[in-house]
Amino acid sequence: MKKLSSIPLTGTALPSLAARVTTPAYHRASLTPAVVHLGVGGFHRAHQAVYLDDLARQGETGWGETGVGLRSPAMRDALAPQDWLFTVVERGRDDTARVVGSMMDYRYAPDDPEAVLSLLADARTRVVTLTITGGGYPVGGDGGFLADDPDVRSDLARPQVPVTAFGYLVAALDRRRAAGLPGFTVLSCDNMPDNGTAAQTATLGLA
User: What's the pLDDT at 94?
Assistant: First the structure.
């Protein structure tokens, strides 16, 4: 069996990788950063990012995305050397692999809160999606907003240096309103009951 040489996954290496895996045929620089995703993990990379990659492959270049980490820089550190590219493998009778190119950038929020707020307040941002786990929602078992949550209290005291995902959303929406810009759509992709209602409760409660 012939041993294949290793090729690092980077933007410049994509032409060399095209014979081995499916690679983006579109120009990534032409993508519009319309989607911001908070909490990039395995589920997001194997699902939503793939859907956005599918759109770009079909010529719909208006849905590029920027990832944001809130709790750990690990994903940033893993993706940065790869120019935010990653490979998704689909197991089956015939395994397939594809390089996903829809992610254009990544920010680790605690390192630069202002950069993330500016990103969310950017007129090009149209959708903000969430996979922050159930623990990221300051909502109690009764469905009510947890105003006494320590992170919520921190966001109320220092709204320009948020801690929670919803602190970032509310501060950015306030900036957009002041600038005369429309709001963005908030879409929860977390595996929890009534995730959309929980996102609404957390956002309005903090606002």
Answer: 87
Structure tokens at 143: 């469905």
Q: Give pTM, 2 decimals.
A: 0.93
Over residues 151-163, the pLDDT tens digits come to: 999 999 999 999 9
Q: What distances in angstroms separate CA 158 from CA 98, 128, 148, 202, 207, one per listed residue?
A: 42, 22, 15, 17, 13
Are 64 and 52 in contact, with CB atoms under 8 Å apart? yes
Q: What is the Cβ-side half-sphere exposure of residue 171, based on CA atoms within 13 angstroms?
A: 24
**100 and 70 Cβ atoms separated by less than 8 Å:** no
Please state whether beta strands 127-130 and 33-38 pair in parallel, antiparallel, or not at all (unpaired): parallel
List residues bridging with 12 in a β-sheet.
none
Compute the distance between CA of residue 12 and CA of residue 82 in angstroms, rounded to an integer. 10
